[in-house]
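Hi everyone, sorry if this is the wrong subforum. Our group has a chain we'd like a structural model of before ordering constructs, and none of us has done structure prediction before. Sequence below.
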Amino acid sequence: MPFSMEKRKDTVSGILFVAIFAAAATFVADLASVRALGLSPLVIGIVLGIFYANTLHNHFPKEWEGGITFSAKKILRFAIVFYGFRLTFQEIVDVGMAGFLVSLLMLSSTFIFGTWLGYKIFGMEKDTSMLTASGASVCGAAAVLATEPVLKSEEYKAAIAVSMVVLFGTISMFLYPVLYSGIIEPATGFLHMSAKEFGIYVGGTIHEVAQVVAVPASIPNASKEMADAAVIVKMTRVIMIAPMLILLGIYLSYSTKKEGEESSDKVKLVIPWFAVFFIGMAGFNSLHLLPIGVVDGINEIDTFLLTMAMTALGMGTRFAKFRGLGLAPIYTASAMFLWLVIGGFVITKIIYALF
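Answer:
Right subforum, don't worry. Here is the predicted structure as C-alpha cells:
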C-alpha cells in the first residue's frame, strides 16, 4: 500500500516531487511564446517527465516511485472527474444538432478506424492502438489519460499516444488557419465555409482543447461565433468521453470472455466510475449553483492535477521501451489525421447543410 506506515513518507515525497515538475510545466506553458503555440501544461508536463526519466532518473530515490505511480493513477482519476466543471449540458444544446452529430460521428469513426488500423494493419499492441485513437478522437492528452486506467496499460504506451497528439495537433494549428483565411485562395478561402461552419469543423476534428482555442485566435478578424462554435463542439466531444469509456469497459469485459478463458465467466464488468462521476459533475455544473470565480478556481486546480498526472506518466517512460516499435504509431496517427482533416470536412459540410 502506498500510504502504509512504512511507505507513507516516500509516497508523499514522490507526489511533491511530481508537483514541483508540474509547477514548472505550468510556468512554461504560461509564457507568451508557448501559449501562442497552443501547448497546454499537460503536454509540457509529459515532456519534462520524459526528460527526467531518461536523464535524471537514477539520481533520485527509487522509493519515490510509489508517489509517482500514485500521481499517474489515482490523482488522474480524481482530476478527470472534476474535468466535468469545464462544460454544461446547456452548451451542448446551444450548438445545435449539427455540432452534436459532427462530434458523435467524428469521435466514433476515428476511434474505431484508428484502433483497427493500428492493431490489424500496422501491428501495434491493442492497448497502444486504442490509446492513440482515443487521443485523436476525443480530447487529446486528457482522453489518453482517461482511457489509460480503463485499459490498465503501461505508462509508455500512453506516452506514445500523447506524443502523436502533440505532433499532429500542432500541425493542425498551423494548417487550419491557412485553409480558412484565404492564403491559398485570397478571395474566398480554400474551404468555402462560414464562420460557424468552420468553428464546428475545428471543434469536431482538432485534438487538444487548447489547440481548438488557438485556431480561431490565429485567424485575423475571426468572429466570436466561430470561436464559440469551435469550443462548444470540442467540449461536446469531451463529455462524450464518459459514455465512450463505459462502452469500452463493457467491450473489454465481454471480449475477455470471448477469448475462451476458463474462468472468464467470473470476469467482472469494467465500469470506469470516474467517467460516470464526470457526467455527474457536468450535470451539477449545468445547474450554475457555484459562482463563476469558484468554478474557474476549480478548473485551475484541476488543470494542475492533470498536469501532475501527465508529468508522472512521462516519468515512467524510458526510451528503451520504444525499441522495436518502429513507425507504426506515426503511420496510424497520420491516417487518423488525414481522416480528421478530409473526412471531417466532408461530414461537417453534409451535416451543416442538413441542419
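For your construct planning: Residues 183-188, 262-267 have pLDDT under 50 and may be disordered. The chain is about 75% helix and 0% strand.
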